[in-house]
Design goal:
This protein has helices at 2-10, 18-33, 39-60, 64-77, 79-93; strands at 98-102, 109-113, 118-122, 129-133. It has 134 residues and is α+β, with helices and mostly antiparallel strands. It has two domains: 13-77; 97-133. The strands form two sheets. Strands 1-2 form a two-stranded antiparallel sheet. A hairpin with a 6-residue loop joins strand 3 (118-122) and strand 4. Helix 2 (18-33) runs antiparallel to helix 3. The radius of gyration is 23 Å and the shape is elongated. The chain starts with a helix and ends with a strand. Bound molecules: zinc ion (ZN).
Length: 134
């Protein structure tokens, strides 16, 4: 009964998309920051409300087409940051088997097995050669 109601209620609505997830996390950050005494805390209190209302607006919006467009732009703009965090996670999980170097010329990451001593490393992207200790 309740499930049916919820199903019908969310039918044709935007739901929790990438932006809504982001603003939802922001809402919680703002809640914590609103405990700062004085004007700063008050500003974050206001931001909490704004962010919460905006999240609800996105989730319940029936203009799914427009929300999808906004989400696509949001994902485009945040691609580099999201890529950075995804790559950091990979590097962290492989840190015991591999050492990661950054090419001094093109700044791309290079993965080298650990424990091979001093190595001459050739960048796969730009061909630059440099040495590093594994
Ligand atoms: Zn390079």
């Amino acid at each position: 009964m309740i499930r049916r109601f919820l199903y019908n209620f969310f039918q044709g609505r935007n739901g929790m998309d990438a932006i809504a997830k982001f603003t939802w996390i922001l809402t919680f950050a703002f809640i914590l920051l609103s405990f700062i005494p004085g004007v700063v805390g008050y500003v974050f209190y206001v931001l909490t409300t704004v962010s919460m209302v905006y999240t609800l607006f996105r989730v319940l919006s029936r203009n799914v087409y427009k929300r999808r467009e906004e989400e696509r732009r949001f994902l485009d703009k945040t691609q580099r940051v999201r890529r950075y965090f995804a790559d950091s996670r990979v590097r962290f999980s492989q840190r015991k088997e591999y050492k990661f170097f950054r090419c001094p010329t093109c700044h791309s990451y290079l993965r080298v097995p650990r424990g091979k001593g001093k190595l001459q490393i050739t960048c796969r992207k730009c061909g630059n050669r440099f040495s590093g200790k594994t």
